[in-house]
Amino acid sequence: MVTQNRPAIPPEQRFDSAAGSFYLQRLPISSPRNLQAWDAADELIHDYLVANPDIRRPLLINDQFGALLMPLADREVYSVSDSYVSHCAWHHNLSLNQLPDRLQALGPLDPLPATADLVLLKIPKSLSLLEFQLAQLAATLPAGTPIVAAAKSKLFTPAVRELFQRYCDQAEVSLAQKKSRLLQARTRSVTIDSEHFVSRWSVPEFGFELLHHAGVFARNQLDIGARFLLEHLPPAGAADVIDLGCGNGVLGIGYGRVSPASPITWVDESFLAVASTRANIAANLDADSGHYQALVDDCLSQQPDQSSDLILCNPPFHQEHAVTSHIAIQMFTDARRVLRQGGELRVVANRHLAYHQPLKHLFGAVRQIAANPKFVILSVKKR
Ligand SMILES: C[S@@+](CC[C@H](N)C(=O)[O-])C[C@H]1O[C@@H](n2cnc3c(N)ncnc32)[C@H](O)[C@@H]1O
């Protein structure tokens, strides 16, 4: 809650709702100020909580920066997200509000608490992730456990409503308020086959056999930007390589194929991306060689200074529903710190994304390695 004796926090980071006043920051802290850490759907859930004060063991799903968590911090609360950045934001914002941190934070592959007495769910961008989450709830929670889902009205598409009909009972969508809606339902007991949520496909021209968990970028085919970068990889021999924002891991796997002696680290903020990458390393490289690792991180926040000679990156241009370049810029800034003198950052990007300027600002000279009508490949070196 907002209390005295704290550093000044900009008013646009103050979330006033029926449940109280909270300071909420997005991560990374460098996020643009016009992007808020909460939305009107969070406000509807706060209204619901005020009308239903007896919840003791809430289970939160996809709470991006902790807007749902703040009024529930004193309960036996579990929160699940695929995003490591969200996990960091929950603890950060609890501390910012001087609230107790008894949170049980879970990744999407962790077992769910069967004792939850209410599920609060924000609709994710990925339909496959939503289906996986609803199926997990149906398989784990006692039938009849209440679920309250919230999102902007436009996200309650026919496909989203159909998933709730498939995995829940009594699903009812509210009228729109502030362009957002609540969906209230009860869990239905459904047996699931976890293989249904894993997709597998091959890329014969590169000899890749790939596995994807739900929600991971480019789930059904090789991304065309990634394909272009795979056709223009740097020569073999880099001593320490990082695949930054690795998704299914294809860029690092491509480099590992041409340079089997190079140690490679794959990094993504998505737990499911890192799990997919680990499976793909095992299926496509000599995983016993001991010089491969895949880690969850926010950009390169946990990587030591001057520890890499080559960073490959196909950067994201959105954070869930928000279109933004700040994550890409954070990746470039971290890459500059983590590269050794003379080390290279090689980036593939849509032509319309203006990465030339920030790269020039950070590194100096920018070399264009290749271009096609849609993409460009840019290379910068740490001087
Ligand atoms: C455009 S996709 C590229 C995936 C893969 N490298 C490819 O080329 O197919 C960008 C990836 O960046 C990841 N990402 C987003 N924000 C991140 C962050 N803060 N730290 C690390 N990875 C992040 C996303 O989860 C996503 O997998």
Strand order of the largest sheet: 5-4-3-6-7-9-8
Give the beta-strand count.
20
Q: What series of H and E elements makes up the topology?
A: EEHEEHEEHEHEEEEHEHEHEEEEHEHEE
CATH superfamily of the largest domain: Vaccinia Virus protein VP39
- Helix run count: 9
Mean pLDDT: 94
Note down, in words, how this protein is organized.
The chain has 383 residues and is α/β, with parallel strands linked by helices. It has 2 domains: 11-187, Rossmann fold (3-Layer(aba) Sandwich); 198-381, 3-Layer(aba) Sandwich (Rossmann fold). The chain is 26% helix and 27% strand. The chain is built from 9 helices and 20 strands. It has helices at residues 40-51, 84-96, 127-140, 158-167, 224-230, 250-258, 271-284, 326-338, 356-363; strands at residues 14-17, 20-23, 58-61, 78-80, 104-106, 118-122, 146-152, 168-173, 180-187, 199-203, 208-212, 241-244, 264-268, 292-296, 308-313, 318-319, 322-323, 339-350, 366-371, 375-381. A 7-stranded mixed β-sheet has the order 5-4-3-6-7-9-8, with helices on both faces. A 7-stranded mixed β-sheet has the order 14-13-12-15-18-20-19. A hairpin with a 4-residue loop joins β10 and β11 (208-212). α3 runs parallel beside α4 (158-167). The chain is globular and about 60 Å long. The mean pLDDT is 94. Bound molecules: S-adenosylmethionine. S-adenosylmethionine (SAM) binds next to α6 and β13.
